[in-house]
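Appendix B, Record 12. Input sequence as logged:
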Amino acid sequence: MSIGDIGDSEAIRERAAALGPWFHNMELAGVRTAPDHFLGDYPAVKWRCFRHALPEDLRGRSVLDIGCNAGFYSIEMKRRGAARVLGIDSDETYLAQARFAADITGQQIEFRQLSVYDVGRLDERFDIVLFMGVLYHLRHPLLALDLIHEHVVGDMLVFQSMQRGSPEVAAVAPDYAFRETAPFDDPGWPKLHFVEHRYADDQTNWWVPNRACAEAMLRSAGFVVTDHPEQEVYICRRVARPEGAGAAYPARSARA
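Logged structural output:
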C-alpha cells in the first residue's frame, strides 16, 4: 500500500488510528501517529541530538535495526541511502506500523518478526546495527549484547538505553580483594537497577543501568565506544571481546 493507494490524509489518519496505539510519533504525509505522546516529538527529538554522529551517506551499506518498533530509525537509515535495511521486532503490532510507515514514506525496507535473542538465525553481518531503546526491556540484557556481537555486527553498533542513577563514572581497578566492599557504594560504580514490578507503568522495563554500567556492559560484550553524542546514545566499534567474557557460566571462571 502506497500513499497513492491510500489517497488523502484522512484515509491515512484512519489507517494509522486503526494500527495504534503508536510509541513512535511519526509524521506520515502530514499525519501524526502519536500527537499526544508523553515525550513529545519522539523519537525525532532524540534523533536530532545524535544524527550528526552517523554517516550522512550510507550508500552501499547494510543496516539492521533491532527492536525497530514503528520503523522510525529504519526509515532514516534508508533516507541516507543504505543499500539494505532490515528491521526486526518481536511485536507484530509494531511491525504492521513499520510496514505502513515505510509504505507511506516510499522506503523499501524489510521487516521481520524476530527477537534479539534470535539474531543468530539471520546468518548475516551488517555494517551498522541499531540497538535503540531495547536493553532495559530485556530480562537477559548482557546475553543480548553478546549475541549481537557474535552474530550480526560487522563494524558499527549504535546503542541507546534509558539510564537512571548517577551520571558519574568511577575508575574501576582490574581486581579487588574479597573483603573490599567500599567500591560498590561509589555512585560511579557500574550499577544495573532491577525493576521487579513496573517502571513508568511498563511491565517490560526490567533493568535500568546507570551511565557507568551501560559503558561497562558495552566493553564487556566487545564494543569500544568511539563517540557519545547524546546522554543515552553511544557509537561503538566491534572489537574482540575481553578474555574470559561470556554470558554462560563457567566461561568467565577458571574454577570447575
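The domain at 56-238 is CATH 3.40.50.150 (Rossmann fold).
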